[in-house]
Amino acid sequence: MPLTELLPVAVFAISYALDPRKVRTGLYLLLALFWAVFSIVGWLSGWMASIDEFAAAVVIVVAIGLGLVTVVGFAGFLIVAGIALLRHEGYALAHILGIAVGVALLAYTGFAVVVLRVDTLELFAWLFLLGLPAGYLGFAFTAFLLYGSLYPALMARRGGPVDAVVVLGSGLIDGQVPPLLASRLRRGREVFDRLAERGTPARVLVTSGGRGPDEPVAEAEAMAAHLVADGMPADLVLVENESRNTDENLGNTAELLAAHGITGPIAVVTSDFHAFRAALLMRRHGLAGYGVGAPTAVYYWPSAVIREFFAVLRDHFWLNAVLLALSVVPIVVYVATGLVAQR
């Protein structure tokens, strides 16, 4: 195998080894997978040249069919999960993200099928032009989805010793810990206990979360009470009850730990859809350690992942704004050229 075939894998491996808490590491992983797919396609092209035309046509049709089924199936999953989310959680703009993306995927796929059947140059031009920003967002989202799912799974199994386990809060319901937050607390306790079993116990477990305007107590206080009621020794639990978002969770927790003489690496436990972004923010704050994800209800996960993706785009606003604007420039030029030609 030529060394060039291994280059994308090597780039990903080096980036991961230096610090896995980077967006570009996910991009390198997806590029490595694309490289592998292109290599397989190249091999298949040579193989199909050696078989009869009918068999080659069957292979091509099957490949296209699998691609369509995958896209349509994923879009359908987003829509069904979005409807279930609305039924369980009620209407909110964030709750319709999955439905919106699913409908957009189906619309673009349907448009592509129509273009291929009608076979007109103008429609093909629009398919290509709309595919530029869609392709940019699609590539970025696929990389985020792939690596954002892989990273917390790896850290849950292979995360090293830490001085503290930190569980991030989420909204309470009538002052009580709801299922999503209970899942985070269970995973935090699992990480804490597993480290002790390995002979590298964490010194404390921190609950982090302030009090919302409609909450009778701070999230961190309800979380700590939940842990203690479940058998966690109270003297091993620290409470950070002032934070209002993930940035403040991490900053306030770092100050709290430093006040207790704890300055080593930490494991930040949150929901699986949020774990990678939490790790990115840890790196921004200069905090050593890693993020771990807790399971989330299937219906809740798609819209939450999409929301996190847009949050990461926002965190790297200018880079993404420039690249997205560049992908839209050909559309503007095409429309402007058409308007001038009509005069």
Any key phrases for this structure?
single chain; alpha/beta; Rossmann fold; 2 domains; 5 strands; 69% helix; elongated
Task: Describe the protein in words.
This protein is α/β, with parallel strands linked by helices and 343 residues long. The chain has two domains: 51-155, no CATH class; 159-296, 3-Layer(aba) Sandwich (Rossmann fold). The protein is built from eleven helices and five strands, in the order H-H-H-H-H-E-H-E-H-E-H-E-H-E-H-H. It has helices at 3-18, 23-49, 53-89, 97-118, 121-158, 179-197, 219-229, 246-259, 275-285, 301-315, 317-342; strands at residues 164-168, 204-208, 237-240, 266-271, 289-294. Strands 3-2-1-4-5 form a five-stranded parallel sheet. Helix 1 packs antiparallel against helix 2 (23-49) and helix 3 packs antiparallel against helix 4 (97-118). It is elongated. It starts with a helix and ends with a helix. The mean pLDDT is 87.
**% residues in beta strands:** 5-15%
How many structural units, i.e. domains?
2
Look at the helices and sheets and give the structural class: alpha/beta
Distance between the termini: 58 Å
Strand line-up of the largest beta sheet: 3-2-1-4-5
Helix proportion of residues, in percent? 55-70%
Uncertain ranges: none
| Total E-strand runs | 5
CATH superfamily caption of the largest domain: HUPs
Report Rg.
24 Å
Would you state the CATH class of the largest domain? Alpha Beta
* Largest sheet data: 5 strands, parallel
Mean pLDDT, to the nearest integer, reads 87
Shape: elongated
